[in-house]
Every structure is written in structure tokens, then in C-alpha cells.
């Protein structure tokens, strides 16, 4: 029977915890002597008290340089001991944070800076040229603060020197419903939009996760930079528990295993692609990972075979593939390892059940009728809180149905146990001879081939047939396989309509967003030039 799936009611729903600057300030005082962050590359540690002393000093400097409440601060840096300090200082003063991932293309970087026009940009010295070139094109004039040695611009270290009255500085008090962060949408089908998330929404998302048996926050590790909402939720969870954030500016599979062993990491969040490298590390048994409680995958789909391999290799670790969106301030579905202990291992391809204060319905893509279990449709979500709109374009109502459910643009279904499964993006699906083709289902078949490192499937126009399935493939090192062999491999495993009639081409790289999502529009354009 068709139904709406409802997550458990949260205990924080009607509580106002204040804005993040004040909350983080109070938490830092409570956990003052706890280790707050660890740079695994340099084996450097910093307590909450030390980090917040630097943040207060920076806040005073920024105020002297003209920063006011509601101004925007941009951070463009890999994870290090310094990149979170302007974030804390900015929230302290009531500024909004709109970070840029340093791996963004110049085109996307220009667009993001032009969209938010920040008052200050904090940039790691390696990426100053990217920021300078972007600003020259945009025509705005933010003050640039360089993290690391650099001849031009303001220097980060100079702005965190001792101040006479630094101990008396208090965070600005204002409504928790105001915007804290502007996150840029992933840009898989076009230029990113700025999604405005409130202090209240982000803090409660972190609290709700901690109330579930899902991600522990004693010692956290994540690959994502401050550009991503996952990194911010992780940061909030760390503050709530007085835990540690461990990071590496250039994480490799071997390096990650070493830091798991050395710093006794308890929970982590990975893109699925990173798991392939972990399993190829020789002598895995020499790394002590007993402290590791759970690993959550997100951002892109994962094959059944791969998650099974991870579970077989790291038998004591709890693995799952969660589902979330920036527009819902984070998590939509996940498994609670205590509540769902009897089913989560049996449903390796499920993204779990509805998260706290979340409602989900699956509707027919064309008729919009509510669907029963095991039927593919668009996933609609009523989150605990919705964003404050898009930056410079607050109107988001067209993204919601008349009952207040967000149209995710994702295709999926739920089973009789109300476990949700993600199939693909509607925009990434295409029609071949009136059949809906789901690229991810063909990609999963390709990824079963032992010679393939990465595979992306998309449609290429072909007259009256519509779009024909087409693939770009990256082979593993030292692997050789012919196009004919791959066609045979696929044809034996898919329906006739799913055959790669548009062709298969081997490539050296595949265009992706910083979170690992395929940029099919760019891939399609590249394919036409091959």
C-alpha cells in the first residue's frame, strides 16, 4: 500500500540553541583542555582553548579591517590547522561563510565568487593564483588573507597575533534562524547555486545524528573540505561532544590507514571511490583499526560487490551508504545500527530509513501519484527545516510540491521495511526508444569487470531512437581489454535497450565535482570531441 515514510520525532525540534558562534564559544569553554584538531601530516595538535584564542584574535583583526555582521567570508583551502579559524571567527562576528573547494575549475570558482561577492577571502598559499584570476574576472575587491608564506596580500599569522583585550571579546547574539553558511550546489548539470542554511538547521542536524547510533564523534575523520556540508556537520558533531577532528591535506589510502591506527579514529565519511584504493593497500592486517566503529559512504552510488568486500575485509566495522542533500541541511536517510541491527546487513544497497524529523514519499515521475513499495519514482522529502532560499534568489517554492515536500530530482523506491534505495538522478536518466535508461544500473555492471577503474554512462542523441547509451571508461593500471570484450561483457548482463550502442571510449580522466559526482554534461561534450 502506498504510504508516506516518517522518521522518528526528534527531541531538539522545538528547542532554540542560539546561533553557532555563541554555541561554539560556549562549547569551547566547556571542553577547553580537550584536543580539538589534529593535523595528521605534521602530527600537530591543538586544544579547543588554543583554537578559540586564535579565532578571537582573528575576529578582532577582521573587525578592525571592516568586517560587519552579515558580511561574507570565503575560505579556499585544504584541511589544515588554520582553515577552520576564520570560520569560527566569522561565525563569532555574525558573518556568513561561503567556502570554495580548491579543486574547483577557474570557471566555477569565478562563478561562486561572483555569486556571493565576499568581503574577505582566506586562501591557502598554493591557490592564491586561482583566487586572483577569479577576482580579476569578477571585478569585486575582497581583501585576500593568505594562509602560509606569500609575498602579496594580508598574512593570516599577522591577523592572529596577541590583542590587549582579546579575553573580553564576546560573540554577537542574533537569531538562530538567520543564514550561517552558503553552500554551493554540486553543479552536475549547470552552474552552482548558493544554498543558504541556518544556524539552527545545521546544529540540530548534528544533534539528531548524535542521538542515533550512526556516526560517533570521539575522533572524526573526513576527506571533504569546508566547501561541503558534510564537513560542517562533522565539525558541529565534534563541538557537541568535545571530540577531535583529524585531517590530512593530501589523503592517500595508505596515509588514511596509518592515521586511523595512530589517532584511533572512531567514525569517518568517504566517497565510495576511495574504498577501492583502501582495499588495494598491501598488508592491511598490519594496521590496527579496532577503534573504528563506522564508515559511512555518500555522494555517489556504491556497488553491492564493493560494500560486501569492505565488510568482509574490515569485519568489525559497520558500513552503510547514507543519503542526504544540502537543501535538507544534511541527512535524509541512514541506518541506526542499534534500531536496525537485524536488517542493515541484509540490505547493503539501501540507504537506510528516514532520519529524525524527516518525511519521505515516492511519487510517479509523470502522474505524481503516491507509489507503493518497490516501485521507482521521484523521492520527495519534507525535512526538519528548509534552507533560507538561494543566495540572491530566495525563491525556492518551485522546488516543493503543494504539501511542502522537496522535489529531490532523485529516483528511488522503498521496500516493505521502509528502507529507501537510490536509483539515479532524473536529469541523468534518458530515453531510448521510449524506454527510461538509468545510467547507474549500467555503470554498476561495468564496475564488475576486473579491468575497470571507473565508468560513466550517458546518452548521445541518435535520431528517432532518442538517446543511445554510451560509456567512457578508465582502466586500472597495467590492465588491457578491448572494446569488443567490454561490449560482450555488458551485453550478457543487461537488457537489449541498455546495450552501449553509442560506443565505449577509453579515457585518462573523467570530469567530476569535488565530491566525486560525474559531470555528465561536460563528459558528453568531451565525448563528442574524441
Can you give a write-up of this model?
The protein has helices at 20-30, 48-64, 84-92, 106-116, 128-138, 199-211, 229-241, 253-263, 272-279, 304-313, 439-446, 483-491, 520-529; strands at 5-6, 35-39, 44-47, 72-76, 96-97, 120-124, 143-147, 154-155, 179-184, 194-198, 219-222, 244-247, 267-270, 294-297, 318-321, 323-325, 330-334, 353-354, 359-363, 377-382, 406-414, 420-425, 430-432, 435-437, 452-461, 467-475, 503-506. The protein is an alpha/beta fold and 530 residues long. It has a domain at 429-529: ANL, C-terminal domain (GMP Synthetase, Chain A, domain 3). It has a seven-stranded mixed β-sheet, sandwiched between helices. Strands 1-19-20-21-22 form a five-stranded antiparallel β-sheet. Helix 1 crosses helix 3, helix 2 packs across helix 3 (84-92) and helix 6 packs across helix 7. The termini are far apart. The relative contact order is 0.10.
Key descriptive features of the protein:
single chain; 530 residues; alpha/beta; GMP Synthetase, Chain A, domain 3; seven-stranded mixed β-sheet; five-stranded antiparallel β-sheet; 13 helices; 27 strands; peroxisome; AMP-bd_C_sf; CoA-ligase activity; AMP-binding_CS; AMP-dep_synth/lig_dom
